[in-house]
Specification:
The protein is of the alpha/beta class. The chain has 15 helices and 14 strands. Helix 7 runs parallel beside helix 8 and helix 12 runs parallel beside helix 15 (about 410-440). It binds ligand KE4.
Amino acid sequence: MEFHLSKKLFKEANQYLVGGVNSPVRAFKAVSGQPVFIERGAGAKIYDVDGNEYIDYVCSWGPLILGHAHPQVVEVVKSVCEKGTSFGAGCEVEVELARQIIEAIPSIELIRLVNSGTEAVMSAIRLARAWTKRDKIIKFEGCYHGHSDSLLVKAGSGATTLGIPDSLGIPTALAKYTITLPYNDLERVKEVVEKQGEEIACIIVEPIAANMGLILPGKGFLQGLREITRQYRILLIFDEVITGFRVAYGGAQQLYGVQPDITCLGKIIGGGFPVGAYGGKREIMEMVAPLGDVYQAGTLSGNPIAMHAGLQTLKILAQPTIYEQLAQKTTLLVEGLQNTAQNCRINPFFTKVASLFCIFFTREEVIDYQTAKTSDTARYATYFKEILNQGIYLAPSQFEAGFVSLAHTQQDIEKTISASRDGFKAINNYGMVHSCLKACG
Ligand code: KE4
């Protein structure tokens, strides 16, 4: 594959944009590669500016569960744009989308729509602190909840990828209120809550962790968090920005049968447009302005274009068998990759749930941030580059998840498995070269 135009564009981009990108992970630093610039997408495919075609497993980091440029989404967006794009006033479609979300997620009685997952989580934390009149929060190492100050502490996603677990610029006076614990370690949570419970406003968790690779909650972990938070009047916040409408129509809380006090959403509910949302019990949400004294606002919150794109997406997801189809495609893919890896005498650790998956290049069982970090990121980079050259677009970092869409076909999956054979062989070759260089000193 040739990347001439992407290279040229990246060089130019670096003159104007920080690092040539508008979000760090897109710079491909973790795979020390040359980022590709995408020109268009259609279904499960994206096409870069050099005309290369890729089967896309990033799906814009989750929103495009229907695939790119879904006809019904494009149609509704086109027709709405012609009537104006933003009014800074109420629109009927905001009410329709709010109703659609609330009907899907029983733990949400009242909701506020915003413009990003970061904004949703930042507002939910502020609300939890106001509701409980406490300052401390508990989050989990490797979980990523957007880039608001209190949460950019031992974060996942780009922060892990870039090896900056704690960002610069966060006042220690604020960071000290964030307690970070190992994911899936309920005993540690109990220890801390028994000592400091009266000072803790909330526990925020990705119910399925998808920002340090993909890590499933251990048996009883989420239920345990629910019990201990109830006991100490701590609010439980599920960050379902990725898992909301992804792993089930009712999100991870439906899959695991655990209801949080506040849910944060994003990505899919905007159908590919900027969006976020936080919602929960009416009595809690009524503390938010203009009803209550927790202030939060946004110029483009509830933007009609994003609302229509999100509503159309959810209406399609609400149809029967959609999640069964997504799960079948993902199982076909992961089982094929596992068999191929074994045939190449490679034993990565795979995780999968619904239409999310991940390949960790480690022999360890990955259950938290520390075990995720045992992954060989150089091997991941080798695999990533080999399959990219064969037209497979996986996340440019070991510490992200893979996303399957409704548009991925059996043929796409078979091509991915075939390309992975070469990807695993490239690792074997890399391994041999590496050990030879090591032996030669
Ligand atoms: P945004 O502010 O990027 O819309 O959402 C932040 C966020 C919050 N919570 C979870 C669980 C998330 O995964 C995210 C954002 N996800 C990353 C991908 N791991 C977005 C990609 C990026 O940062 O470029």
